[in-house]
Amino acid sequence: MSNKNAAIVEISQTANKFSSSIVLQFENKYIDVKSILGLFTTLLNTHSYELHVHGPDAEEAKAAMKEVFAKHQLNVKVAE
């Protein structure tokens, strides 16, 4: 499994632990982070991403998502 695949699987698995909506934005596209397929088409390009997290466990979800993106050297900014 390539590093990219490992990152995608781990990002999706982490997102699915939370009930909050977790959406990755780059340019004018919005991808549901819980969708592995969506991530495959998005993370193939090296952009900087913005993460939008909304829901009852948003704070915990933001912290966990920042950690997993950093672990895989992916540049992500969490929208407030």
From TrEMBL:
**Alphabetical list of Pfam families matching this protein:** PTS-HPr
Q: Which domain of life is it from?
A: Bacteria
Task: List residues of the HPr domain.
Answer: 10-70
In Swiss-Prot or TrEMBL terms, this protein is called: HPr domain-containing protein
Enumerate the SUPFAM superfamilies for this protein. HPr-like
Give the organism's phylogenetic lineage. Bacteria, Bacillati, Bacillota, Bacilli, Bacillales
